[in-house]
């Protein structure tokens, strides 16, 4: 093995590490401008909309020290992730098995890019 191939391998490995960081930052920085629309009181077709009647009624509103808190539209990204996507992933693992999950897992999918792009993972 000559010195040039070793340098190329190290550069390829650095670019793979950089692509991992890009993927990680992409997963963390989820910007959601769409789901607050689902919780607006005027969205009559949404099951998640805020009902203004319950916000005013002292028997149904959320009270803190005897005062009803104002309800306002909110992002549902965390609710969708933890209440729908994570349980669906667990259901897939239990019903269809670990091997099926490995084929469709987003993290595993992103790790397979190295092989598809022709980069070597081994650094000597």
Describe this protein's structure.
The protein has 124 residues and is mainly alpha-helical. The chain has six helices and two strands. It has helices spanning 3-28, 52-56, 77-96, 98-104, 106-111, 113-117, and strands at residues 63-64, 67-68. It has a two-stranded antiparallel ribbon with strand order 1-2. The radius of gyration is 24 Å and the shape is elongated. The termini are close together. The model is unreliable at 1-5 (pLDDT under 50).
Please specify the SSE layout and strand pairing.
Elements lengths: L2 H26 L23 H5 L6 E2 L2 E2 L8 H20 L1 H7 L1 H6 L1 H5 L7
Helix pairs in contact: 3-4
Q: What percentage of residues falls in helices of 4 or more residues?
A: 55-70%
The ordered H/E elements are HHEEHHHH
Rg over C-alpha atoms, rounded to the nearest angstrom: 24 Å
Query: How many helix segments?
Result: 6
Distance between the termini: 10 Å
Shape: elongated
Number of strands: 2
The profile of the biggest β sheet is: 2 strands, antiparallel
Order of strands, main sheet, comes to 1-2
Which structural category do the helix and sheet elements fall into?
mainly alpha
Oligomer: single chain
- Beta content comes to under 5%
Query: Low-confidence runs (pLDDT<50, min 5 residues)?
Result: 1-5
The overall pLDDT average reads: 76
